[in-house]
């Protein structure tokens, strides 16, 4: 499953022929960097590869005013089949991304409980800040969300709240050792 490919194909399927910059703007508008590993800058390379594979084709080039010409892409029948395959793979794929803190915990015997408490308090504050940011983003985006899109925000908020709870548990255990 390739998130960038899934996003680009879905943008073309939903919105029709688009140039790379419009797909990049859609990624920024959808705030994909908050809830997926899609990087807007990687969309151009993905479009090039998918063109070579026959998943998208060049519909035309256009120039609006003085900017350089833009290549407009459209999804092909093979691209629609790939979109379904990518979507289905994403729905079946369960990922728990590695967090470097888990590795770091193995190498903390030289730290005092106070030092660990300081580090985890700072980490907890960062997670809480991200949760607050995400909740603000959700509130801002709410009027424009359609269909199941609110579930994306709910999923991210639930994961951040779980991360906060884990940090609270770590801090409670560290208190017991002092």
Automatic annotation (TrEMBL):
PANTHER family: TRANSCRIPTIONAL REGULATOR YQJI. One of its GO terms (molecular function) is DNA binding. Residues 11-83 form the Transcription regulator PadR N-terminal domain. It holds the Pfam family PadR. Keywords: DNA-binding. This is DNA-binding PadR family transcriptional regulator. Transmembrane segments: none annotated.
């Amino acid at each position: 499953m390739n998130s960038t490919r899934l996003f680009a194909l879905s943008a073309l399927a939903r919105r029709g022929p688009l140039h790379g910059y419009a797909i990049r703007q859609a990624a920024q508008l959808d705030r994909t960097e908050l809830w997926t590993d899609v990087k807007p800058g990687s969309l151009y390379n993905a479009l090039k590869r998918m063109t070579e594979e026959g998943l998208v084709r060049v519909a035309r080039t256009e120039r609006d005013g003085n900017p350089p010409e833009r290549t407009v892409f459209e999804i092909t029948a093979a691209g629609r089949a790939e979109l379904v395959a990518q979507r289905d793979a994403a729905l079946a794929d369960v990922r728990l991304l590695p967090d470097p803190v888990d590795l770091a915990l193995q190498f903390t015997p030289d730290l005092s409980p106070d030092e660990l408490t300081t580090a985890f308090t700072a980490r907890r504050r960062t997670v809480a800040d991200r949760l607050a940011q995400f909740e603000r983003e959700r509130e801002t985006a709410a009027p424009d969300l359609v269909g199941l899109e609110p579930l994306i925000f709910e999923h991210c908020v639930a994961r951040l709240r779980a991360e906060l709870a884990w940090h609270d548990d770590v801090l409670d255990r560290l208190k017991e050792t002092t």
